[in-house]
Amino acid sequence: MSDSPNTPEADRPTGRPQAAPRFPGGPSPDPAGSHHERRIRSFQPRRSRVTTSQGDALRRLWPTWGLDIDGLRTLDLAKLFEDEKRPVERIVLEIGFGMGEATAQMAADDPDTGILAVDVHTPGQGNLLGLAERNGLTNVRVANGDAIILLREMLPPASLDGLRVYFPDPWPKARHHKRRLIQPEFLTLAAPSLKPGAILHCATDWEEYAEQMLEVLTEHPDFENTQPDGGYAPRPSFRPLTRFEGQGLDKGHVVHDLLFRRSQTGGSGSAPQS
What are the DSSP calls for 105-122, one per residue? Predict the structure, then answer.
């Protein structure tokens, strides 16, 4: 998604017609509508074809396992992941999951952890829902929309046991660095939703972005590095080697993992006001 218009709020049209949903009962094409703030987006939806199986999964499974990030309600995460057969013990938020293969693998390997997976890529949403159904995964929920709105408007304080951001868009051009997700403002926003001791886990194969991540995380008062030397962490066994990561490794890219812990006494205390 590109920058929001610079038109003053008072002059902007209200009540704009919503685009017709491509999958009735499935994810909304614009869940938050126009009632939230103008700001630079850290993501850009990719336009690609939804396969028949992905579309079928969206139509059938979205009402049960999907949710739109509309910014109009506070989520009850315990109820969202309620399952009589296998209740979860922990809930983590994953921002950006691509086609969902790694997310599904992590959910299968750790059924006691509920994964709230957020993305704006419709084919990926359908693919992850299909993977969850085929593999009997009841600990995955798929959220459609802007993770910033989710964190700021919809998550209760200290409700997450972890936050995962794997291979976010590096926005390599210098003029686009302001679009990168891992910035001090994002960390201040995310911190209140994380329980003390919760792990923020980032991974990237873009060297310069990894350096920026390490710098801003190290300097932020709400997070502390899990590594005694203050550097990058080895890839933990629970993070699968993704197809995207494998392609980068084949090109000679170096992947960096960063594991930072939400401090017991954070410095910011609350999210910034909009």
Answer: HHHHH-TTEEEEEEE--H
